[in-house]
Amino acid sequence: MFLFRIDPFFELWRTGNCPACELFQAELTFKNLKGANFEHSEIVDGDLRGANLENANLDGISLWGTNLSGANLKNSDFELAKIMLSNFSNTNLEGSLFKETSIDKTNFQNANLKNADLRGAYFLGGNNFQNANLEGTNLIITKLKYADLRGVNLSGANLQHTDLTGANLSGANLSGANLDNPILTDANFENTNLRGASFKGVNWKGVQLRGAIMPDGTIHP
């Protein structure tokens, strides 16, 4: 009796779904994969630039060296995913779910993460969020150690108990954000807008605040 293994690329192109697939150097640029199921799949060195993955199920996916720049990932589900050395620059991730996701050395520059849910996500280091939009994003208990958050829009975001050790938030907008009980060791808030933000239980020791607009509207010397 012969057992035939279905080619994952064939299955993907035939159905638009590929749960638990192993895809190496997949060429999926600008492909319409709206609502596709990639649950627990692994994509290595993939090219998904400009792809439409709105409402896609990427729960538990592993992404290694994959390029998703300019892709539409609105309301996509990355819960419990593992992401390393990947490119999400200029992507639309509005309303997406990254709960308890592990992310390392990944580029989110100029990405739209408005109202995304990143609760408990673990950014291991070397992650670039320069000029990204994280307005209203849920970052409770998220680890953003040494993240590059320069020029980021975090207005109205929830960063309660977030670990921002060594993070660079210079020039960022955190107006109206909730930063109660954060870890801010060696964080950089120079020229940051903190107007109306909540900082209950904060320890400012070692935090760089030169030129920052403080919660009460005064400018730190």
UniProtKB/TrEMBL annotation:
Organism of this sequence? Crocosphaera chwakensis CCY0110
- Which PANTHER family does the protein's record reference? BTB_POZ DOMAIN-CONTAINING PROTEIN KCTD9 (PTHR14136)
Q: What is this protein called?
A: Pentapeptide repeat-containing protein
**Gene3D superfamilies referenced in this protein's UniProt entry, alphabetically:** E3 ubiquitin-protein ligase SopA
- One family name in Pfam for this protein: Pentapeptide
